[in-house]
Amino acid sequence: MKKVNWKELGIDLLVDVGASIIIAVGIYNFAMNADFPVAGFSGIAIIMYHLLGIPVGVGTILLNIPVAVFCYKFLGRDFFLRSVKTTVISSAFIDYVAPLFPVYEGNRFLAALCMGVLCGIGYAMIFMRSSSTGGQDFISMSIKKVKPHISLGMITFVLDMLTIMAGSILVFKDVDGFIYGIIVTYLMAIVMDKIMYGIDEGKMTLIVTEKGEEVAHHIDKYSGRGSTILKGIGSYSRKEKAVVMCACNNKQMYTIKKIAHQIDPKAFTIIMESNEVLGEGFKEEV
Fold first, then answer.
1. Secondary structure (3-state) at 286
2. Residues 196, 127: contact at Cβ < 8 Å?
3. Among 30, 28, 166, 168, CA closest to 90
4. How many CB atoms lie within 10 A of CB 123?
5. Helix H segments across 97-233?
6. For the whole model, what pTM was predicted?
7. Max alpha carbon distance in the chain (Å)?
8. 31, 46 in Cβ contact below 8 A?
9. CB neighbours (10 Å) of residue 229?
């Protein structure tokens, strides 16, 4: 039996509660009243609510039971138990906590934006604790296990589109609603990526030069960033060259590029986006 880490469990519960409030408000207080389809099991639960009157949280749990039983062997015990805990909490908050807040009755487009941002933040918080809200996440990951050549992004996109189309056809019967559903799905994905990876994003530069030591020294002197000097050989000239590799934030990139050009106008500089930078001088690994 694996020993329970009570501190980690406490943090998980706090994150689940905070994220569940955000997600519940996004779904109940913005999406349901605005009449546009939502992706995932929440979207199917909303369809059940409109057709059968089943509360969204209860519907989400009912949908998750057979999926969880079927997908258990593909997911692993720890992830499965974490997800069950999160799913129960988030579903309860949709039915019992979100109704305590006022429902937004304004513009549908603004409701879609608010729902996308709120749910994106909430789901990102949950994913960063190695958990999920079950449902479509279970199905997507199980399909990925069986068909590893298919990208997870493609699986998720297809399932999302099927749910949005079903909501548009069966319940809302509204082309605008379908468009809003696509906007919400895309916005949620963008927000989740920014929360999970974009906060610590920066740049990485590779400077191919014959003056590697001098370039590295000036980068450290004027930008305060250390760098790594790699050895390289020109494929055409066969001359040995240095490749100065340096990770920095967006503001420091201009200074580093300028330094490289001033010291060696013939330097070959490659600048790449870096979604997340961990280590000394940046965010420490947790």
1. coil
2. yes
3. 28
4. 25
5. 108-127, 136-146, 152-167, 175-196, 212-223
6. 0.72
7. 74
8. yes
9. 16
What is the spatial distance between Cα 55 and Cα 145, in angstroms, rounded to a whole number?
A: 32
What average pLDDT does this structure show over 97-126?
91
Task: For helices 175-196 and 108-127, give the axis angle rounded to 10 degrees.
Answer: 40
Tokens 């059940």 correspond to 48
Segment 226-240 mean pLDDT: 86
Torsion of CA 89, 93, 94, 95, to 10 degrees: 110
Q: How confident is the model at residue 197, as a pLDDT?
A: 64
Q: Across-strand partners of 209?
A: 242
Cα–Cα distance list, 11 to 6, 36, 183 (Å): 9, 34, 32
| CA-wise closest residue to 82 among 12, 2, 139, 182 | 12
Q: How far apart are CA 282 and CA 248, in angstroms?
A: 9
C-alpha to C-alpha distance for 134 and 64, rounded to whole angstroms: 7
Written as one letter, the residue type at 223 is: S
| Model pLDDT for residues 1-54, shown as the tens digit of each residue | 557 678 888 999 999 999 999 999 999 999 888 888 888 888 888 888 888 888
Tell me the CA distances in angstroms from 165 to 38, 40, 63, 85, one per residue in order: 10, 12, 18, 29
- Edge to edge, the sheet with strand 202-209 lists 228-233, 240-248, 202-209, 268-274
